Amino acid sequence: MKKWTRWQDYTVIAAGAYAALSVLWTTQTGSSTAIMVTLGLLLVIGGAVNLAMPGMPAAEWAQAIVAVALLLAPWLGGFTSATGAAWSAWIPGAVALVVTALAIKPSTEEYRHHHVASTP
């Protein structure tokens, strides 16, 4: 697996950037701004880490957890009534979760290929 080539990680970066920047054009309520910016930036960082260092399943799983948090954020943060903000969390969260799920198996296989001890 080559660095800087996985489309899944670029998609996660785009989803995270959209979530973080969507606070500029959607109506926010309560803590939605902080939640959206924080989780969006965490997805951007996670995607960049996975691009730079492919084959780290732990980073993929952490990214999946952030994607789930973004997907659940409107309910947990109490901003489901702010539909623009809510949809700007649900859609990027779902996209990030799906593409991360697609990347976990290849990442795990890459890790095993390079880190499994040879048996005698």
Automatic annotation (TrEMBL):
Pfam families: SPW. Signal peptide: none annotated. Residues 7-100 form the SPW repeat-containing integral membrane domain. The keyword NAD does not apply. Keywords: Membrane, Transmembrane, Transmembrane helix. The chain crosses the membrane at residues 7-25, 31-49, 61-79, 85-104. This is SPW repeat-containing integral membrane domain-containing protein. The lineage of its organism: Bacteria, Bacillati, Actinomycetota, Actinomycetes, Micrococcales.
